Each structure stands twice: as C-alpha cells, then as structure tokens.
C-alpha cells in the first residue's frame, strides 16, 4: 500500500487491529518516506529505524494476541526535548549532542506502554527558545508547505514531520506557544494542555513554571488519541496534578458548538502587525462557528500589552537557572584543554550554547541578580497574576476565548528578525502559559501565498475535552485539516 500515511490515527489503529496491514509494514512505510523526503525538510535529528522495526514486530505480536491497546503499533515522532533511554536526546543543542539519557521521559514511557512505535527524535529551536526552528547546530527545518519558509517553533520539527507525513502524529512542548504556533504555520491541530496535565518528568526544562507537553497532529481526533496517552498524574513531577483524566476520544462529540459562548478580546484584533489575511481567515472561521450555533461575545483583556514583557522576563529568568546545570562537568559538551575550572565553565558554555540561548541566560541572570530582582522578576510575577485574573474574569461570561495563534503566517527562512521583532510574534500565545490555561490551534485556511492560517481557542482550566470537541465538530463541517502540502502527496 502506498497511501498508509493518508489514514487518520483511528483508521490506522483499526487497520492494524483488523490485520489489513502490520505495524512493520506501516513503520517501514514511514521509514521509506523519511529516507526519500526528509533531506529536503530536515525534520529528524535522529531516525531510530532499527529500534522502530523491533518495536513494530513486538506490536505485531501483541496485536495477534488480541491484547492490543487503542494505539498498539502506531508510529510516532518525539520532540528531541523528551529524554529517550538509549537514544540521543539533544534539546536541539550542541551542548547535548552527545547526551544519551539513562531513562525515558514519562511521556515517552507512556507511549511505549501504549504500544507506540518511535520513529525518531525531531528538530526544534535550541532548548525550545525560539519561534522558527532555524537551529544553529542542526540546521533549519523547512515548512512542508513551502520549503523556503520556517515551520515555526520551537516544536517546528514536530509540525514538519506531521505536515510532510513523515510521522502520523508527534509530541511537542509549549512554554510560550511552541505547540500552537508551529501547528498554525504548518496547517495542523495542536493542543497545549492545562499546566500540570502532562508530566514534565524527563522533558528538558526551559521555563519550568510554564513548560507543558502536548499532542500535534492533523485533526482534533488524532490529538485526542495522543492526549489519552500523554495526560495523567505522575509522582515524578511534583507539578503534575492528581486529577482524574478524561477519555479525550470518547468525549469527542458533535454538540460542543451549539450554545457555546466565544469571547472575542477587543484588544486582540487591532494589534499592529496582525496580517490582513490571518485576520480574515480567523474571522471567517468564527463566522462558521457562529453558523454552527456559537455566540460571539466581545470581551476585555486589558492586560494584553503586558504579555510580551512579562513572559520575556520570567521565561529567561527560569531558563538561566535551569541551564546552569550545563557546565561541562556533569552533562554534555566540554571544551578542549581547559586551563582551570573557570575556563572549563566559560568555554564549555560559550562554545556549547547558541546565540539566542546565551542571550536568554544573560537577560535572565540580570533579572534575577540582587539589585534588579524586585524591580524586574518580582514585578513580573505580580503582573503575571493580574494576567491570570484577567482571564478568570473573562471566563465568568464566556466558555472559550478566540484569537489568532500568530499575527502572521510562516516567516521566510533567514528573515533574520531582531530578537524583539521575533518576541512580538508570540503576542497571542504567551498569556496562556503565564496563566497555565489550555489552548488549541486549528487550521482555518490559507493566506495569499498558500501558507496556512490558524485559529486559537483558549479554554478555562481542564477544558481539554471541550477544546478538542469544538475543533472536532468544526472539522466535521470543514476540510482545512485534510489539506496536504505537495511534498506530503509524494510517494516513497
Ligand atoms: N517563542 C517562545 C520563546 O521563544 C515560546 C517558545 C516555547 O514555547 N518553547 O520563548
């Protein structure tokens, strides 16, 4: 079969269970596609062909016994920020190019228990800091819709593998938009769960109070399958919440939109830099939801001007602390011939980290230093609380909040935006992480250059099932999520 990669996750799982094809055939199919196509996309850092085929054979044996779980034998790609036992985990950094984890991240372990087959580890912005996946060490990942454009970031490899059909779905992480923005740039569905819903154990830390893993796939239904694997309490992560997990697949329904009150923040649609095509597509999708029975309600999110400065203080502050462990002694890259311990630290860190990571460490260290702590870090924490309260007040009157996921479509590779221009591109995603809320991106059409546009829906805490259901119902009434880039139409 040449078109296995066109199946939805549900169809793939059904095909495996009814023995229309084996996990080995399916896995080999993806490995062939990777071998033929990924030279042009540059999405995989590591392809684990041998292990994948062994896992596929094991899955086929389980499938024969009739003891298979919902996803036994389905392939997946993991963002290279999740530790994988025995397989290199780089976090997209030269610093960790030689790091092989002695254990699996909880998300990876859960995937194994569910019978998923790991195809490999995919590219990202270094340590998840960035929005383009133009990685300084592993090279730029390309947007499958137009290879001259970026796939977004930091989970750009995860988005690119799905959009090019080099994996049926992928894990991503989102600290300030890194699931939603690449999903938007690549025409995919991506869910950033409530903080604490998915374990961070074994996920290399960027900004621990905001980092959250989640699924990236073509449809809300596909994401629901992966959420069923990823979500849940983990005693190895003290910030993971001990709260019953929904069955996200069983909860998908066709009744989520009727009567739904969608908040439209008046500050969000007049932002300078909001692309006219993006605005138009998002408004069309909201009109569609209105036709399906939703009510649009104007709301006030008066803290919106504070999102970018608040996030870009707190995230670097946490990053500077988290990344202090990479010192050339215990992990990863070590400079050659250090003259003394200080020289070892200095050169290992300046040779091992790329420019953006160094910039964040410098900003974060500055914000946390004795004379500036109160003026910057403490103040940002106070503003963070106000941003959260802004959302909670809005949710007294609406069920979800709509926004673009990004003000533009995918940038050109090498556009070389200044750091502040780049940070402004995160305007629509950061507040969700500051507040710990869940949010989803859904593809809603294309701009004049045939690049995808995404709608973001922000929900109240623990509303993942609701967000997935709204997008699922939207996708049953539209076909944007079924559109494929030309490169995905190629056969291996
Ligand atoms: N672009 C944002 C940043 O650079 C978000 C990244 C992320 O969510 N990991 O920090």
From TrEMBL:
Signal peptide: none
GO cellular component: glutamyl-tRNA(Gln) amidotransferase complex
Domain Amidase: 25-468
Name used for this protein in its record: Glutamyl-tRNA(Gln) amidotransferase subunit A
Lineage of the species this protein comes from: Bacteria, Pseudomonadati, Pseudomonadota, Gammaproteobacteria, Moraxellales
Pfam families xrefs: Amidase
Keywords: ATP-binding, Ligase, Nucleotide-binding, Protein biosynthesis, Transferase
A single GO BP: translation
Top-level taxon of the source organism: Bacteria
Organism: Acinetobacter wuhouensis
InterPro entries documented for this protein: Amidase, Amidase_CS, Amidase_dom, AS_sf, GatA
UniProt similarity note: Belongs to the amidase family. GatA subfamily.
């Amino acid at each position: 079969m040449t078109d296995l990669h066109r199946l939805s996750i549900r169809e793939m799982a059904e095909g495996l269970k009814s023995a229309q094809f084996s996990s080995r055939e399916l896995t080999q199919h993806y490995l062939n596609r990777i071998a033929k196509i990924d030279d042009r996309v540059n999405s995989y850092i590591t392809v684990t062909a041998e292990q994948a085929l062994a896992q596929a054979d094991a899955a086929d044996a389980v499938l024969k016994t009739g003891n298979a779980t919902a996803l036994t034998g389905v392939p997946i790609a993991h963002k290279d920020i999740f530790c994988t036992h025995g397989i290199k985990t780089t976090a997209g950094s030269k610093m960790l190019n030689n790091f092989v984890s002695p254990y699996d991240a909880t998300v990876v372990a859960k995937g194994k228990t569910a019978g998923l087959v790991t195809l490999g580890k995919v590219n990202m912005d270094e340590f998840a800091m960035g929005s383009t996946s133009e990685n300084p060490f592993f090279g730029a990942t390309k947007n499958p819709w137009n290879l001259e454009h970026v796939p977004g970031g930091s989970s750009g490899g995860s988005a690119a593998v799905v959009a090019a059909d080099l994996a049926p779905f992928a894990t991503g992480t989102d600290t300030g938009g890194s699931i939603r923005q690449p999903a938007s740039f690549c025409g995919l569905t991506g869910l950033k769960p409530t903080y604490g819903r998915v374990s961070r154990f074994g996920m290399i830390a960027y900004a621990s109070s905001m980092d959250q893993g989640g699924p990236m796939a073509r449809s809300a239904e596909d994401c629901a399958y992966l959420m069923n694997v990823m979500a849940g309490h983990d005693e190895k992560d003290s910030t993971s919440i001990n709260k019953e997990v929904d069955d996200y697949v069983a909860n998908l329904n066709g009744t989520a939109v009727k009567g739904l009150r969608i908040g439209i923040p008046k500050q969000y649609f007049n932002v300078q830099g909001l692309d006219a095509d993006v605005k138009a597509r998002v408004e069309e999708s909201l009109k569609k939801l209105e036709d399906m029975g939703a009510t649009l309600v104007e709301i006030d999110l008066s803290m919106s001007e504070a999102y970018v400065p608040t996030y870009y203080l707190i995230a670097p502050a946490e990053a500077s602390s988290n990344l202090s462990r990479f010192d050339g002694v215990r992990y990863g890259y070590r400079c050659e011939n250090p003259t003394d311990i200080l020289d070892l630290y200095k050169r290992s860190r300046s040779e091992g980290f790329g420019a953006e990571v160094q910039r964040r460490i410098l900003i974060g260290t500055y914000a946390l230093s004795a004379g500036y702590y109160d003026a910057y870090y403490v103040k940002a924490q106070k503003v963070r609380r106000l941003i959260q309260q802004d959302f909670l007040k809005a949710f007294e009157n609406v069920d979800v909040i709509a926004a673009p996921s990004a003000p533009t479509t995918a940038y050109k590779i090498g556009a070389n935006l200044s750091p502040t221009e780049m940070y402004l591109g995160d305007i629509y995603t950061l507040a969700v992480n500051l507040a710990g809320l869940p949010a989803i991106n859904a593809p809603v059409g294309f701009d004049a250059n045939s690049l995808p546009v995404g709608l973001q829906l922000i929900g109240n805490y623990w509303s993942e099932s609701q967000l997935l259901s709204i997008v699922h119902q939207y996708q049953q009434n539209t076909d944007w999520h079924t559109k494929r880039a030309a490169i995905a139409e190629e056969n291996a």
